[in-house]
Predict the structure.
Amino acid sequence: MILGPLAAGAAAAWAAYTWGAHLVAPGCVRRGPATRRRIALTFDDGPDPVWTSRTLDLLEAHGVRASFFLVGERAERALEMVRHIATAGHEIGSHGWSHRSLWLCGPGRTEDEIGRARAVLSETTGRSVRYFRPPWGMVNAAMFGALRRHGQRCVFWSIQPEGLRAMPPTRQVDRVLDRAHPGAIVDLHDAEGVRDASERLLVALPAMIGGLRRLGYEFATIGELLDYRSFT
Ligand SMILES: [Zn+2]
């Protein structure tokens, strides 16, 4: 197909708005400092009425604090759960209002996705929400200004045991243990994106936590992992 000059211009502008933003990604983090054997477990896509509470129970049983990147409109339907996550000592981050890919959002919608999610999460927990994980890991050029206005930092990950393809629990554990490194950020899902992902995760988590501890790792929230002062 041959694009006309207008369509080609629009395609180039869209590529700069999306792909171009990925190339620059100012202020985005994929890992913490490598100065200490610390790892952050992060859970995306909740809160889920069933799986988030089971994940919380498991983390409590193992004495692990983690970070939950919540979807705003799901959080609004489960405010008690949001408070419960926060009072259990976990960090709450934002995963946008509707989990819409930022590749499909213009600047206005981007501001709305980030602002609405921040509002419901910070009002519910009484805490500032300092971290944002873009749905699907996709960013656009408008996101950086919106995050600055809302006092948030974009957080990707350095290890993802299950992406869009289902991965058996044992392989998820192996992947995390093989790739573990000081300052790692592990991307997990406590609500269904991929079918039965949360169920597989709950099977994998105890071995993942135990294995990381045997390798000498401590668990930290994203805030702790990125707070350089806590490394002195
Ligand atoms: Zn997600």
Notes: The two ends are 58 Å apart (CA to CA). The longest strand covers residues 38-44. DSSP finds nine helices and seven strands in the chain.
